[in-house]
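Researcher: Here's the sequence for the chain we discussed earlier.
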Amino acid sequence: MSGKKHDYTDIVAIETELSGYRRGSLRATIDLIQNRIAWVDTHMWNNDFVRALSPDMVAYIREMLPETQLLSWASDYAKGIGNIMGSMTSSFPQDWSVAIYFSDGEVLKACGVSNFPQEWGTYRRLIEAVAKTSFRLR
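Model: Thanks. This is the structure I predict for it:
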């Protein structure tokens, strides 16, 4: 671990996964170096894709990431405070995980079951804008 406090500009990739019992899983990997999104849907395998991202879309992602408060998720959930006050819950059990990759090689991870970070809706809408499809389990 570098000990450096990371900033949103240090992010090079983000991998986000949702999974649920008998509902399969969705994984979106946004690569800000290769300018692409990879999508894996285990419930509908014919929905898998890899798409190039335009420079404008990459700029939009970088602009919107701070609004998600994504960098606080890893520390909040590691401290056990990520599932209280203001978090969203789902109507059926589902796991979520986010891995944030930084330019120095460090990786921050956050995960939870059914309790989502307060800014999950903002983050989900960002993924949906990039992927042009819904990021919800069926």
